[in-house]
Design brief:
Layout lengths: L3 E3 L6 E6 L2 H10 L3 E2 L8 H11 L5 H17 L6 E6 L5 H7 L4 H4 L3 E6 L2 H14 L4 E7 L13 E6 L9 H14 L5 E7 L4 H7 L6 H17 L8 E8 L4 E8 L3 E3 L8 E3 L4 E8 L3 H11 L2 E7 L5 E7 L1
Parallel strand pairs: 2-6, 3-13, 4-5, 4-7, 5-6, 7-8
Antiparallel strand pairs: 1-2, 8-15, 9-10, 10-13, 11-12, 14-15
The structure holds S-adenosyl-L-homocysteine and N,N-dimethyl-L-histidine.
The site of S-adenosyl-L-homocysteine has 20 residues, from helix 2.
């Protein structure tokens, strides 16, 4: 496994820890049932498709969280001077923009923004946009998997961790627990975690959000096969797979799958022989867990944090929890 730690000199300072993606993808395709980790959605094309999803009428998640941030930015950012604002799964950085806008120019100069994402292209694009908008903010990026490399975040300053979008819901419960325990250990007294959680709601609203009429989510889902082709040299034809997304009531999560429309045979230099997929077989590509107020307290006890505040929209569709150590 290639493990590379490097720092690049330019306008943004960088730390990266990448490698092992080929083996991870291979293990998922060899498993029964097959799966691919949702972090592989986000190459350059996938990151752009996700941005398109955030603008869809059906995908209430992003606009609801943004409305909460807009309504409460001043209060949320009070005391954030001289802090490192670490955003996990930063994506297009549009949410942090809302919070940084609440800071005055002088305070902004004291803040370091740390986007932490597996997608270097997303950080590069959004870093440029942030530079244009907030020239004075220092940017220090980390390109790595936040599940394995959270320790790469600098220890020097006081930190405000931001984990928006309900991206924590894309982890299995076991992984989310481990992540919260690790983050809680890493955080020091007085440091904060702003955690965005998409709440359990009517299944029709949930299912529409992941089955939009324009088919953008279907393209986003299928793009993971293109990423697989680039990473391990497979020959998946996305046309041979169908997007499927549904709410699993018992597990309180949306599941996304790619279902084979016919029998297909996949080749790759990484396989001994070929991979046969039968019509109707599915590759599980994403879980998107939804939360209840009980989870808010459960997460506090797992991470050793206290709930300082919790902000919700009028429908209680989304909650932004402000935890403090
Ligand atoms: N926070 C943004 C983007 C959410 S999309 C928003 O709320 O709109 C999820 C983001 O998390 C993507 O940019 C993706 O590249 C990143 N991501 C997903 N899994 C990750 C992982 N394991 N480690 C680091 N980044 C990850
Ligand atoms: C990033 N993540 C929280 C999104 C979600 O809703 O689970 C990803 C996504 N998948 C399909 N649409 C959006």
């Amino acid at each position: 496994m290639q493990h590379n730690l490097a720092t690049r000199e330019d306008d943004i300072s960088w730390k990266t820890a990448v490698g092992g993606e080929d083996q991870e993808i291979l293990a998922g395709l060899m498993a029964d049932p097959m799966y691919l980790s949702s972090k592989f959605f986000y190459d350059e094309v996938g990151s752009k498709l996700f941005e398109e999803i955030t603008r869809l009428d059906e995908y209430y998640v992003s606009r609801t969280e943004k409305s909460i941030l807009e309504a409460n930015a001043g209060e949320i950012m009070s005391g954030a001077d001289h802090a490192s604002v670490v955003e996990l799964g930063s994506g297009d950085c549009s949410k942090i923009s809302i919070l940084l806008s609440a800071l005055g120019q002088e305070t902004l100069k004291t803040v370091t923004y740390v986007p932490f994402d597996v997608s270097m292209s997303a950080i590069e694009d959004s870093g440029c946009r942030l530079r244009e908008k907030f020239g004075s903010v220092e940017i220090s990026a980390v390109v790595a998997d936040f599940m394995d490399h959270i320790h790469l975040v600098s220890q020097h300053e006081k930190r405000v961790f931001c984990f928006f979008g309900s991206t924590i819901g894309n982890q299995d419960r076991g992984h989310a627990v481990r992540f919260l325990e690790n983050l809680g250990k890493l955080m020091r007294s007085g440091e904060r975690l702003l955690l965005g959680l998409d709440m359990v709601k009517d299944r029709n609203i949930l299912e529409k959000a992941y089955n939009d009429t324009e088919g953008i989510t279907a393209r986003f889902n299928k793009n993971i096969l293109e990423v697989t082709n680039h990473t391990i040299g497979t020959d998946f034809d996305t046309e041979e797979f169908e997007h499927r997304a549904f709410f699993h009531e018992e597990k309180q999560r949306i599941e996304m799958h790619l279902v084979a429309r016919k029998d297909v045979t996949i080749t790759s230099p990484f396989f001994d022989g070929t991979l046969g997929i039968q019509k109707g077989d599915s590759i599980h590509t994403e879980n998107s867990h939804k939360f209840t107020t009980d989870h808010i307290d459960e997460m506090a006890s797992l991470s050793g944090l206290s709930v300082r505040n919790a902000y919700a929209d009028n429908n209680d569709w989304f909650t932004l929890v402000d935890y403090v150590k």
